[in-house]
Amino acid sequence: MRIRTIVLVVAIALMAGFAALNMDEFTRTSMLSLGFTTVQAPLGLLLLVLLATVLLVFLGTTLYIQSTHLLEMRQTTRALAAQRELADRAEASRFTELRQYLEAQALAVHQREAAQATVLAERLAQTQAALVSKIDQSGNTLAAYIGELEDRLETRDGVRPRVALTDAPPLL
């Protein structure tokens, strides 16, 4: 029990004990004026009845407020659970959309990388072919220059030795 409830129960018990110990005084009759008339009634008993009535009204009001509060809490809890479920579904939907978007982006990046790798491989092959062609041209040009120099040297010395021609590629 809460402290407030314990204090209320103790206060009611003390009042009931006080009324029980002084019941003779509470039931003694006296003249009471109601403003327009006068009646004979026990004042203490009348006050006890009024106190009990106020207490019962207070307890009834408290029970009504508590039950109304509980009903509102249940409705709020249901509404909150429905909103939470709706938010969870929306969040799951957003995560699904995000995952699909990221997968699409990853696929696009992979395709771009593959296309760029293909283009790079083609360019490398073209560059290698051009380089081999230039090397062959340079080798042929160098062989022609060396041959021309040998011819000049031979004609200058007057001796013309026989050179065996081979099909071997020039050394680099």
Can you offer a commentary on this structure?
The chain has 172 residues and is mostly helical. The chain has a domain at 3-117. It contains 3 helices and 2 strands. A two-stranded antiparallel ribbon has the order 1-2. It is rod-shaped and about 170 Å long. It starts with a helix and ends in a 15-residue tail after the last helix. The relative contact order is 0.03.
Q: Overall 3D geometry? A: rod-shaped
Tally of strands: 2
Q: Compute the number of helices.
A: 3
How would you describe the oligomerization state of the chains in this entry? single chain
| Rg | 57 Å
Q: How would you sum up this structure in a few lines?
A:
Helices cover 81% and strands 6% of the residues.
Descriptive labels:
172 residues, mainly alpha, two-stranded antiparallel sheet, 81% helix, 6% strand, rod-shaped
List the helices and strands and how they pair.
Blueprint: H1 3-21, H2 23-27, E1 29-33, E2 38-42, H3 43-157
Antiparallel strand pairs: 1-2
